[in-house]
C-alpha cells in the first residue's frame, strides 16, 4: 500500500509542483492534500492518467473545522481504481470566505447529487454545477446545518439548547 | 427499444401532460416523488425530488457516542439492517485497532448473508408483484419471516435489529437459534427453487422485464453504481472480494453478473446471489471455529447484562461505555461493506471526543438513484415503476 502512496505522490508532485502539499498514510488509506486551485485538474488527471486510472468516484464529503484559521472547510474525495483495487483520499482545504469549488460533474456524472448534498449541508459553492439546489433539506432553509455553529435542533432558533447531548 | 421512436415523432405545438408520481403512491413502495412530463404513455422528462424522510443522521451522529450510533444505522437500509450495524461496528473496530475473534467474524458473516437474502427476497418478490405475479410475493415472503425469527433469537429484535456490539457479538448463537437456522437452511432452497420456477422463465415476466430500464456498464460506473445493480450491467465489483472484511476471504463463492443491466438481469443477479449466500452460510456453519464470540476490549465492549444488573463495577462500565466516556484515538477511517444494494461506506473522523467529529455515510441508494431519470426517459410509465422496484431504492437509505 505504501508503494501506492509513493507512486501517486510522485506523479502528483511532478504534475502540480508547489500546489502539492502533503501525502501520508491514514490507517489503510493513502491521503493526499493539495491546493484547492488545482482541484479539477487533479481529479481529471487521476482519472485520465493511464498508470493511475482512478476511474470510480466513491464519495464526496465535506468537513468543517471552525478553529483552523483560513482552513475552515475541507472537501474530501474518495477515489477507487477498480482494476487494481487501489483506493485513495484527496483533501482540499479552503477558508470560509472563499468556498468556491469547481464542480466535477463533467468528470463523473455521479458527482451531481453528492455535490448537491455537500452544498446542502455545508454551503460549498460548486461552480459549473448544472443544478445546484438543496437536495435533502427543504428549499426554504436559511442556513447550512452541518456547520459546527448550528445546534442539533433547528439552527434558526435560539430558544433551544441541547447541552445534555454533549459538545 | 427501437420501435419507441415512432411514438415520439412529435409535430410542432405538441402538448405534454405533467404527471406527479408520488410522494405517496402505492406503486412506488416508499416516499419518492417524480414529476414526469408525459407524451401519452411515454416519459419525456423526469425530475425526482428526494428528502421526504430526511432525518439528519450525519448531524445526529455528531451528537451521539459511538454505541448510540448503531440504532441510527438500523434506519438506513431497514431491509437489511444487520449489515449496516455490523458495518458500523467494523468501522469503529478499525479506528480503535481491535481484532475480532474468528468465531465472532463467522457469526457475523452468517448474519450478514441472512440479511442479504432478506433484502433480495424483498426486491425480487416486489419485481414479481409489479409485473402482476402476486403469488411469488405472498409465498416467498414467508422466508423473510423465518429470517426475522432467527434475528429475534440472536438479538431480540426483528426489523431494526441493533445486532452485535463493538468488539464482537452481544451473545453467542443459542441452541434454539442454531436449530432455527438449520431448519431455514433446509427449507429455503426449496422455496427459492420453486419461486424461480414460477417466475424466471415465465413468458409474461420475461416480456415485461427484458429491455426494461437498461443501463450500460460504462454509464453505471459513471453514475457510481455498486452492488447487484452494477453487477447486472456486467461489472464484477463486489466489496466482499475486493476488500474482504470479517473473514470473507475464507469462503468460496461466485459473483454472479448480468449482461444488459436491465430489470431481468437485476432480478437474475439477485436470485443467483441468494444461492451464493446460502453457500456461504453453509460453509460458515461447517467451518465454525470455537472460541470467544467477542474481543477482549473492556473499554468498548459492553459487560454482560447479568453482571450489569447485579454488580456495581459492571453497571458503572455499562454507563461509561454507553455515554462514551472512554478514550478513543484520533484519526480518520473509511470502511465499506457490501450492503444489500451496494457499497455501504462509513467515513468516520474522530477528534478523540466522546462523539465522532464527523460521520459521513456513503449510501448506495442515494448515489445510484440519480441515474433513474436517464433510465426511464423514452420508456413507458409502467416500465418506470418496474425499474424503480428493480433498483431496490430504499427510502431510509436514500434520504438518511
Sum this structure up briefly.
By secondary structure, chain A is α/β, with parallel strands linked by helices. Chain A has three helices and seven strands.
Structure description:
The complex is a heterodimer of chains A (167) and B (400). Chain A has 167 residues and is α/β, with parallel strands linked by helices. Chain A is 22% helix and 28% strand. Chain A contains three helices and seven strands. In chain A, the strands form two sheets. Chain A has a five-stranded mixed beta sheet with strand order 1-2-5-4-3, covered by helices on one side. A two-stranded parallel sheet of chain A has the order 6-7. In chain A, a hairpin with an 8-residue loop joins strand 3 and strand 4 (73-81). Chain A is globular, with a radius of gyration of 17 Å. Chain B has a three-stranded antiparallel beta sheet with strand order 1-2-3. Chain B has a three-stranded antiparallel beta sheet with strand order 4-5-6. Chain B has helices spanning 57-61, 66-74, 81-96, 102-130, 134-155, 175-199, 203-209, 217-222, 227-232, 239-242, 263-287, 305-310, 312-322, 364-368, 372-376, 381-391, 395-399; strands spanning 17-21, 33-39, 42-49, 331-338, 343-350, 358-362. Chain B has 400 residues and is mainly α. In chain B, helix 3 runs antiparallel to helix 4 (102-130), helix 5 runs antiparallel to helix 6 and helix 11 (263-287) runs parallel beside helix 16. Chain B starts with 16 loop residues before the first strand and ends with a helix. Chain B is globular. In chain B, strand 2 (33-39) and strand 3 (42-49) form a beta hairpin. The mean pLDDT of chain B is 91. Helices cover 49% and strands 10% of the residues of chain B. The interface between A and B is large, with 39 and 45 residues.
Amino acid at each position: 500500500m505504501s508503494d501506492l502512496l509513493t507512486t501517486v505522490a510522485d506523479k502528483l508532485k511532478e504534475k502540480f509542483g508547489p500546489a502539492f502539499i502533503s501525502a501520508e498514510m491514514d490507517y489503510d488509506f493513502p491521503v493526499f492534500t493539495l491546493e484547492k486551485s488545482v482541484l479539477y485538474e487533479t481529479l481529471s488527471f487521476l482519472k485520465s492518467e493511464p498508470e493511475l486510472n482512478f476511474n470510480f468516484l466513491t464519495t464526496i464529503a465535506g468537513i468543517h473545522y471552525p478553529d483552523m484559521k483560513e482552513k475552515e472547510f475541507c472537501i474530501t474525495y474518495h477515489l477507487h481504481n477498480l482494476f487494481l483495487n487501489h483506493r485513495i483520499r484527496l483533501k482540499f482545504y479552503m477558508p470560509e470566505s472563499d468556498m468556491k469549488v469547481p464542480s466535477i460533474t463533467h468528470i463523473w456524472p455521479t458527482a451531481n447529487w453528492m455535490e448537491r448534498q455537500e452544498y446542502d449541508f455545508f454551503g460549498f459553492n460548486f461552480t459549473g454545477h448544472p443544478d445546484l439546489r438543496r437536495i435533502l433539506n427543504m428549499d426554504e432553509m436559511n442556513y447550512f446545518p452541518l456547520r459546527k455553529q448550528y445546534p442539533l435542533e433547528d439552527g434558526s432558533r435560539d430558544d433551544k439548547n441541547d447541552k445534555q447531548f454533549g459538545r | 427499444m427501437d420501435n419507441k421512436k415512432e411514438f415520439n415523432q412529435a409535430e410542432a405545438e405538441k402538448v405534454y401532460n405533467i404527471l406527479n408520481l408520488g410522494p405517496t403512491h402505492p406503486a412506488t413502495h416508499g416516499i419518492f416523488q417524480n414529476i414526469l412530463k408525459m407524451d401519452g404513455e411515454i416519459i419525456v422528462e423526469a425530475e425526482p425530488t428526494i428528502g421526504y424522510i430526511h432525518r439528519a443522521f450525519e448531524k445526529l451522529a455528531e451528537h451521539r457516542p459511538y454505541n448510540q450510533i448503531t440504532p441510527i444505522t438500523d434506519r438506513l437500509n431497514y431491509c437489511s439492517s444487520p449489515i449496516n450495524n455490523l458495518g458500523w461496528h467494523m468501522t469503529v473496530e478499525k479506528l480503535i485497532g481491535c481484532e475480532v475473534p474468528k468465531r465472532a467474524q463467522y457469526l457475523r458473516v452468517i448474519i450478514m448473508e441472512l440479511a442479504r437474502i432478506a433484502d433480495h427476497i424483498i426486491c425480487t418478490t416486489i419485481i414479481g408483484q409489479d409485473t402482476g405475479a402476486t403469488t411469488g410475493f405472498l409465498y416467498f415472503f414467508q422466508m423473510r419471516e423465518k429470517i426475522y425469527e432467527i434475528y429475534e433469537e440472536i438479538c431480540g429484535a426483528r426489523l431494526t435489529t441493533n445486532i452485535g456490539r463493538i468488539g464482537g457479538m452481544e451473545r453467542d448463537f443459542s441452541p434454539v437459534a442454531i436449530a432455527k437456522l438449520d431448519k431455514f437452511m433446509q427449507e429455503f432452497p426449496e422455496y427459492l427453487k420453486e419461486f424461480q420456477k414460477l417466475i424466471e422463465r415465465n413468458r409474461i415476466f420475461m416480456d415485461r422485464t427484458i429491455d426494461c430500464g437498461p443501463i450500460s456498464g460504462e454509464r453505471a460506473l459513471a453514475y457510481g453504481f455498486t452492488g447487484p445493480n452494477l453487477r447486472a450491467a456486467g461489472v464484477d465489483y463486489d466489496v466482499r472480494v475486493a476488500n474482504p472484511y470479517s473473514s470473507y476471504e475464507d469462503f468460496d463463492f461466485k459473483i454472479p453478473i448480468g449482461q444488459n443491466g436491465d430489470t431481468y438481469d437485476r432480478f437474475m443477479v439477485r436470485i443467483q446471489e441468494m444461492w451464493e449466500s446460502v453457500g456461504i452460510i453453509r460453509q460458515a456453519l461447517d467451518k465454525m471455529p470455537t472460541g470467544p464470540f467477542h474481543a477482549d476490549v473492556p473499554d468498548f465492549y459492553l459487560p454482560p447484562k447479568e453482571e450489569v444488573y447485579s454488580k456495581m463495577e459492571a453497571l458503572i462500565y455499562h454507563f461509561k461505555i454507553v455515554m462514551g466516556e472512554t478514550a478513543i484515538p484520533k484519526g480518520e477511517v473509511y470502511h465499506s461493506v457490501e450492503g444489500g444494494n451496494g457499497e455501504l461506506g462509513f467515513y468516520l473522523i474522530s477528534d478523540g471526543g466522546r462523539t465522532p467529529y464527523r460521520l459521513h455515510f456513503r449510501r448506495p441508494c442515494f448515489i445510484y438513484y440519480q441515474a433513474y431519470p436517464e433510465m426511464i426517459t423514452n420508456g413507458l410509465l409502467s416500465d418506470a415503476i418496474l425499474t424503480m422496484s428493480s433498483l431496490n431504492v430504499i427510502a431510509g437509505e436514500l434520504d438518511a
